[in-house]
Amino acid sequence: MNLTNIDELTDKVVTMLKDRINPSFLVEASGRHIHLSEKDLRFLMGDHVNLAAVKFLSQPGQFASQVRLTVLGPKGALHNVVVLGPTRSETQVELSLTDARQIGVNAPVRLSGDIDGTPGITILNGNRALTIDRGVIVAKRHIHVKSSDADLFGVKNNEVVKVKIDGERPLIFDDVVIRVDDNFSTAMHIDFDEANACGFRNGIRGTIVKE
């Protein structure tokens, strides 16, 4: 065994020991996207169109579809915004703070699904225009935790934690919400503003900061 192999083996052992002491999880960056209700999908796309998976996401059953739409705010538009599937009970548009300010929408930071009191927006597909009276949010950073992993990470549902990201620009994110469910795959979600702040790259991992 040469010195290079010894160094590689040492690095692997050190990583394994660190994960046992303070386990890490995948961090993913989510771009702007739309969740449509079945009714709104039909209005915008017609009765013949169903959402088809172009790319499956890390959370089971979730996918990026073939549909791309435009969202229109008071100061401008964002084009080619992906629609995620499957459909939901109510339409929701998730933007970064930069996106929202660019098109003049005062979007609050919320967990997905928490849309009471949020602003509306217009969604366009060619000459079809749908105006919703609520549903625009900036997604609050959060970690999906599979129920069987909750003990491993020492967390519980709705707990708020700090997370250290070891990217090119290492930082600690505060106010990260834990979401626990049997159907989740354990991963942290941040938006592109946050991804740029920490020098995000594919495969980057995070650890919970113990107080």
Automatic annotation (TrEMBL):
Pathway: Polyol metabolism; 1,2-propanediol degradation. Keywords: Acyltransferase, Metal-binding, Transferase, Zinc. It catalyses: propanoyl-CoA + phosphate = propanoyl phosphate + CoA. Coiled coil: none annotated. GO terms for molecular function: acyltransferase activity, transferring groups other than amino-acyl groups; metal ion binding. Its cofactor is Zn(2+). It comes from the Bacteria. It is an enzyme of class 2 (transferase). GO terms for biological process: 1,2-propanediol catabolic process. The keyword DNA repair does not apply. InterPro entries: PTAC (IPR008300). Its EC number is 2.3.1.222. Involved in 1,2-propanediol (1,2-PD) degradation by catalyzing the conversion of propanoyl-CoA to propanoyl-phosphate. Belongs to the PduL family. This is Phosphate propanoyltransferase. The gene is pduL.
